[in-house]
Every structure is written in C-alpha cells, then in structure tokens.
Amino acid sequence: MSIKNKMRKLSVLFICFLVFLGVGVSKFKYEVVFMRRTLSKINNEIVRIADDLRIYEAEWSYLNDPKRLAILASKYLPDMKPIEHKQILRYNDFINMEYENKADAKRQAFDNLLNSLM
C-alpha cells in the first residue's frame, strides 16, 4: 500500500467521522433546544400555579376571617349552642344504635304487614 492510498483512506475515515460528529452535535443541539422549551413551559406553569396559590390563600384568609364567620354564624345559625358531652357517641354505641333502629324498623314493617292482612 502506498502512502497516497493510506492518506485517502484516512481522509475518508476522517470525513466520515466529521459527518457523524456533525450529525451527533446537531441532534444534541435540537434535543437541548427541545428541553429548554419544555423547561420554559414548566417554569411558566410553576409561576402560574404559584400565582393561583397566592390568590387562593388570600381568598381563604378572607373566608376564614373570624369576624366574618361570626356574622355569618349569627345570621344563619341563630340557635346554635355549644355541643354537650351527652351528644357525643362512641363508635360501638353508634353501631349498636344503628342496628337497633334497623331491627325496630323491620319489626314495625312486619307488624304493619300482619295488621294489614288481618
């Protein structure tokens, strides 16, 4: 093999390498541009959501203002009294009461059926 032949092969390999390198760099560049656009969209969404949260926090502060709630409570709940301890049930008591009410309702319906047949 002559030196010219080796140089041609080396030149062709070098040109192919440069082409592949150019393709890779351009592909990488477009991916970076796409990622920047995506990041920009995400950042804009974050800013929008943060603005919405500030608005919601301001509304929440207004709606939960104790003076406002007292006015609404006196207007719409005039007979409201503090809860008494006898109004609070334990879970088991509630379940038993619910079962007894259902059983009583079934017994009453059965009695009504019997009375209507007689």
> From the helix content, strand content and strand pairing, which structural class follows?
mainly alpha
Number of β-strand runs = 0
Helical coverage, percent range: over 70%
> CA-to-CA gap between the ends?
122 Å
Order of helices and strands: HHH
The tally of helices reads: 3
Low-confidence segments, ≥5 residues, pLDDT <50? none
- In angstroms, what is the radius of gyration? 40 Å
What is the strand content? under 5%
Summarize the structure in short.
By secondary structure, the protein is mostly helical.
Structural features, described:
The termini are far apart. This protein has two domains: 80 residues; 35 residues. It is mainly alpha-helical. The longest helix is centred in the N-terminal third of the chain and has 61 residues. Helices cover 84% and strands 0% of the residues.
Topology overview:
Elements: H1 3-63, H2 66-76, H3 91-117
Highlighted features:
single chain, 118 residues, mainly alpha, 2 domains, 3 helices, elongated
